[in-house]
Amino acid sequence: MINPKLAMVAIGGLAMMLLVGPGAQAQQDNQLNPHSSATNQVSDPKQPSRQAQASKPGQTRTGKQTPATRAAMAQATKAEIAKKPHQLILQVNSNDPAMMNLTLNNASNVAQYYRDLGEPVSIEIVTFGPGLHMLRDDTSPVKPRIEVLAMSNPEISFKACGNTQDNMRKAESKDINLIPQATVVKSGVVRVMELQEQGWSYVKP
């Protein structure tokens, strides 16, 4: 004969198992197997790893520059600057022999200075208005000096304003011939302006 008290305990335990359901069983399994729970936590994609947190963008380390590295970079920069030619415009717009000779002195001195340094230089002497007489074959007071200077200083060039040449031709009713070292440009003023826009240095005597 079954003991009524034991029967009641068995029925009560069965009812508790049915009411709690599979959640309690899973919890019990985790308690019995703690390694399984730890594995699930590690493999959870919602939990960022320490490695991922440590490698955030923009946090890469760069080595410090040594004195030797800085010196090498400075030397390379200096060499790069030396490759770029120095560029100078000298303007003559007056029929004044003193101004013309001063301009030739400045051009010669600048050319010699950079020649001694071993650095390239380009110098343009631009004439317009009354200054065109500097390059006129019949009226230039410095023609012999320009011939000598041009032979020894190929970095110096001479530009004559075409507009001024046309105006002189009309005013004097004759052709205005220039010395062989002169090159005609459409406008002396425009030539000066365009060279400045290209980064040339401008010096007015």
Write a concise synopsis of the structure shown:
The chain is of the alpha/beta class.
Query: Could you give the distance between the termini?
Result: 135 Å
Q: How many E strands? A: 5
User: How many alpha or pi helices?
Assistant: 9
Q: Helices and strands, in N-to-C order?
A: HHHHHEHEHEHEHE
Radius of gyration: 46 Å
Structural notes for this entry:
The protein has 205 residues and is of the alpha/beta class. Helices cover 54% and strands 13% of the residues. It contains nine helices and five strands. It has helices at 4-20, 22-32, 34-42, 50-54, 67-83, 97-117, 143-152, 162-172, 188-197; strands at residues 86-92, 121-127, 156-161, 182-185, 201-203. It has a five-stranded parallel β-sheet with strand order 4-3-2-1-5, with helices on both faces. Strand 2, helix 7 (143-152) and strand 3 form a beta-alpha-beta unit. The longest helix has 21 residues, at 97-117.
Question: Notable features of this structure?
Answer:
9 helices; single chain; 54% helix; five-stranded parallel beta sheet; elongated; 205 residues; 5 strands; alpha/beta
Layout of secondary structure:
Layout (H helix, E strand, L loop, with lengths): L3 H17 L1 H11 L1 H9 L7 H5 L12 H17 L2 E7 L4 H21 L3 E7 L15 H10 L3 E6 H11 L9 E4 L2 H10 L3 E3 L2
Parallel strand pairs: 1-2, 1-5, 2-3, 3-4
